[in-house]
Write a structure and sequence with these properties.
- The protein is an alpha/beta fold.
- It is about 30% helix and about 20% strand.
- Helix 7 packs across helix 8 and helix 14 (about 425-435) runs antiparallel to helix 15 (about 445-450).
- The longest helix is centred in the first third of the chain and has 20 residues, at about 5-25.
- It is elongated, with a radius of gyration of 31 Å.
Length: about 650
C-alpha cells in the first residue's frame, strides 16, 4: 500500500537526517563503513532472531539475503527464528536451503507451505513462554535483527510496534543489529533499549509492513452482532489474530467504557479508542491504559500510537501471563479457531496433519479470562470453510489436529447462526447446542454422527431442511405491563434442558389446567415433541427471562395447524412464579401476529370448566370467543376480529 508523506513528516525526516551526523560522532563504534562488514560478524550455524510481524526490519533482512547471494559460502546452516513473519520470507526459498532454515513460533501465510513440506520448522509454544525460552538460553541467540525508532539525545531507542519477545532477544543475543527507522512510532511501556546495548546501527527509513483486513462479510457481521450481546459495558477485552476477531471489534461501537488488555493491538481496537468506546476507565489494573505487546495494522494506527499516553506495550510474558490477565474483572477473551468439535475442543493450529497457524496467545488469554472475576471466553468462527464445502463444527477434531483449547477453556461459541453456551454443560448438551449453530446444511449429518458416537440420545428427533431451520428473524424483545423484560423466541433443538426445568417447575394446579392431568413426569420422549419442531406446521414461542446470568423459560405459547388449515390449536402456560405479570398476554399477542401472517383466521383450544381466566384473556385481547361444553371441557373458538 502506498504511503504519502505530509510536509511535516518531510521536514522531520530532514531534521533527523541532519541529526545522524551528530549520532555518528557520539557513537562511532556503532557504525560500519559498509553493511557487508556487519554481516561478516555472522558465522555458520548461528541462530538469528528476526523482529516480529510488522516490526520486521525489512531492509536488514533483504540486505542479509543480498549478502548471502553474493557470498553463498559466507555462512551455512544458520537458523532464522521469529514469532511470525509478514515479509516475503525469501529465506525459505530452495536456493537458500544450505544457508538458512526458518524456525517459527507461529505459522504465518508466508511460511505455511515451507513448514508443511518440512523445509522449515514450527515450534509449538505458548507465546507467553518465549521470552523465558530466550533468557534461559534453551534457544540461545547469536544474532538479533531488530527495528527501532531513531535514538534520542540520550541514546534511547524504542522497539515501537513489536515489543513481545524482541526485547528479550535484544537483551540476550551476542550480536544485536538495529535498523533505526523514522517511520517507527515510539510507544510507551517496555520497548526502550539503550544504544549502548546495540552492537551496530544500520539506519534506513522505509514504511512499516501493514496488515490490512478485508471488509467484513455477512457472516462476520452476524457473528459480531452476537458477540456484542455478550460483551458488557465496562468489560476489558482481548481480541485475537485474524480477520474474524478484527471484524468483531467493529460491532462494539455502541459499548461504553471498554478496557483493553491484549496481545495484538489491531486497527479495530485503535478505532474503538479514537471513538471513545475504549477509555480503560473501569479496568482493574493499568487504569486508563490500553495494554498490548505488538501491533499489526495500518499506517493510520501506527501514527495514532506514536507517543500516545493511553497506550503501553509490555513484553509478551507479562501481557499473556494468565495470572496477570485474571486480575482484570470482567475480562473477555475473543478468539477464533479452525474447527471446534461437539465436545467443546477446538484447534487454531492445524487442520488434521496440516499445520496452519500456531498456539499463539489465545490459550493464555482464554485461561486468564476463565480465572478472572466475571470473566468470559468467546470462540467466534464461521460455520463453514471459506468455500462452504466443510463444516467448522465437527463431531471430533481430525486426527493430527492440535487441541489448542480444551473442553474447559470455552464459555461461548459463536457462528453466524447463533450462540452456544458450553460452560458447565454436559457433553450431550454441548453437542446439541453446537449443532443448533452449525450451518443448516450440515446439521443432519452432525445429528447422525452424534448419535453414532453416543454423544446424544439415540432417538434424538430432528426436522431436516427448511421446515426445521430455526427462524431467528422471529426473535423479539418485549416488556410486560408489569415491567418484566422478555425475549420471545421460537424454541430450538438445544432447549430441551430448559424445557425440562420449565415443566418440572410448574405446580400441580398449573399442570392440571394445561394437560388436564397432574403429570409427575415429563420424560425425554415427551420433551422432544416441544424442541424438534416443523415450523411450517407448528409454532412454539418461549418467553425467556434472564436471572443471575442464566436464561429461564418463564412461559410457553404454541399453536398447531388444524386440519381445516384455517385455524390452529393454541395452548399457553406460564411458570407459577411469573403468573399475573402479563407474560400470557405477550405470548398470545405475538402468536396472534404470527398466525395472521400465516393467513389463519383464529384459534381453537380445549379449556377446563372453571378456568375462566383463559376466556377473560382472549376476550380482553379482542377475540370473538365462543365455547361449547363437552363433558367438563369447553371447546373454545377465538376468531380474529
Amino acid at each position: 500500500m502506498p504511503n504519502e508523506e505530509t510536509q511535516t513528516e518531510r521536514a522531520q525526516r530532514k531534521t533527523q537526517a541532519n541529526s545522524w551526523d551528530e549520532i555518528r560522532k557520539k557513537w562511532p563504534e556503532k557504525f560500519k563503513e559498509e553493511e557487508r562488514f556487519i554481516f561478516q560478524e555472522i558465522h555458520p550455524g548461528d541462530r538469528i532472531f528476526v523482529g516480529t510481524g510488522c516490526g520486521e526490519p525489512q531492509h536488514l533482512v533483504q540486505s542479509l539475503l543480498d549478502y548471502v547471494q553474493r557470498n553463498p559460502k559466507a555462512f551455512i546452516d544458520a537458523e532464522l527464528i521469529n514469532i511470525v513473519t509478514l515479509g516475503v520470507a525469501p529465506y525459505t526459498d530452495e536456493k537458500f536451503k544450505y544457508n538458512f532454515r526458518l524456525n517459527s513460533f507461529f505459522v504465518g501465510d508466508n511460511a505455511r507451505s515451507a513448514v508443511n513440506q518440512a523445509t522449515a520448522d514450527y515450534t509449538p509454544i505458548f507465546l507467553s513462554a518465549v521470552p523465558e525460552l530466550i533468557r534461559s538460553e534453551r534457544i540461545p541467540l547469536d544474532v538479533a535483527l531488530i527495528q527501532t525508532t531513531l535514538p534520542d539525545e540520550e541514546g534511547i531507542m524504542n522497539l515501537g510496534v513489536s515489543v513481545d519477545a524482541v526485547k528479550a532477544a535484544a537483551e540476550k543475543a551476542s550480536l544485536v543489529i538495529a535498523q533505526p527507522n523514522s517511520f517507527m512510532p515510539r510507544i510507551q511501556g517496555d520497548g526502550d533499549i539503550n544504544i549502548e546495548d546495540v552492537d551496530f546501527l544500520v539506519p534506513q527509513d522505509e514504511p512499516l509492513l501493514q496488515y490490512i483486513e478485508a471488509v467484513p462479510g455477512w457472516a462476520s457481521r452476524k457473528i459480531g452482532g452476537y458477540v456484542s450481546r455478550i460483551v458488557e459495558d465496562g468489560s476489558t477485552i482481548q481480541v485475537g489474530y485474524g480477520s474474524m476477531p478484527n471484524a468483531i471489534v467493529s460491532s462494539l461501537n455502541e459499548k461504553r467504557h471498554l478496557g483493553v488488555h491484549t496481545e495484538l493491538l489491531s486497527d479495530g481496537i485503535a478505532e474503538l479508542m479514537m471513538k471513545g468506546v475504549v477509555d480503560n476507565t473501569q479496568k482493574s489494573i493499568h487504569l486508563g491504559r490500553t495494554i498490548a505487546t505488538f501491533c499489526m495494522g495500518s499506517r493510520k494506527t501506527y501514527d495514532y500510537l506514536n507517543d500516545n499516553e493511553m497506550v503501553e506495550f509490555k513484553t509478551i510474558d507479562y501481557t499473556n501471563n494468565p495470572l496477570v490477565i485474571a486480575q482484570n474483572k470482567r475480562m473477555i477473551a475473543i478468539n477464533s479457531a479452525l474447527e471446534v468439535d461437539l465436545t467443546g475442543q477446538a484447534t487454531a493450529e492445524s487442520l488434521g496433519h496440516t499445520f496452519y497457524s500456531g498456539i499463539g496467545g489465545q490459550a493464555d488469554f482464554m485461561r486468564g479470562a476463565v480465572l478472572a472475576q466475571g470473566g468470559k471466553t468467546i470462540l467466534a468462527l464461521p460455520s463453514t470453510s471459506r468455500d462452504g464445502t466443510e463444516s467448522r463444527i465437527v463431531p471430533f477434531l481430525k486426527e493430527g489436529a492440535g487441541v489448542t483449547l480444551t473442553r474447559g477453556d470455552i464459555h461461548y461459541v459463536v457462528t453466524e447462526y447463533g450462540i452456544a453456551y458450553l460452560h458447565g454443560k454436559s457433553v450431550r448438551e454441548r453437542a446439541m447446542d453446537l449443532i443448533a449453530i452449525a450451518h443448516p446444511e450440515f446439521r443432519p449429518w452432525l445429528i447422525e454422527e452424534a448419535k453414532r458416537l453416543h454423544l446424544i440420545y439415540a432417538d434424538q428427533a430432528f426436522v431436516p431442511g427448511e421446515r426445521g431451520e430455526y427462524p431467528e428473524a422471529l426473535e423479539t424483545s418485549r416488556t410486560t405491563r408489569s415491567g418484566l423484560q422478555l425475549l420471545l423466541r421460537p424454541v430450538k433443538i438445544s432447549d430441551e434442558p430448559k424445557m425440562k426445568d420449565f415443566f418440572y417447575a410448574l405446580s400441580d394446579e398449573t399442570m392440571y389446567h394445561r394437560f388436564f392431568s397432574v403429570r409427575k413426569d415429563v420424560p425425554h420422549e415427551v420433551l422432544q415433541g416441544y424442541i424438534a419442531v416443523d415450523y411450517s406446521q407448528k409454532m412454539i414461542i418461549i418467553a425467556v427471562v434472564e436471572r443471575d446470568g442464566k436464561e429461564i423459560i418463564a412461559g410457553l405459547g404454541q399453536y398447531s395447524l388444524n386440519r381445516d388449515m384455517h385455524t390452529a390449536e393454541i395452548a399457553l402456560v406460564v411458570r407459577d412464579e411469573y403468573q399475573n405479570q402479563g407474560i400470557g398476554a405477550e405470548l398470545l399477542s405475538y402468536l396472534t401476529y404470527l398466525a395472521k401472517k400465516q393467513g389463519l383466521l383464529g384459534f381453537t383450544a380445549d379449556v377446563l370448566v372453571g378456568n375462566d381466566p383463559v376466556f377473560r384473556l382472549f376476550q380482553k385481547m379482542g377475540f370473538a370467543v365462543s365455547k361449547r361444553n363437552e363433558s367438563g371441557i369447553f371447546e373454545m373458538k377465538a376468531m380474529f376480529m
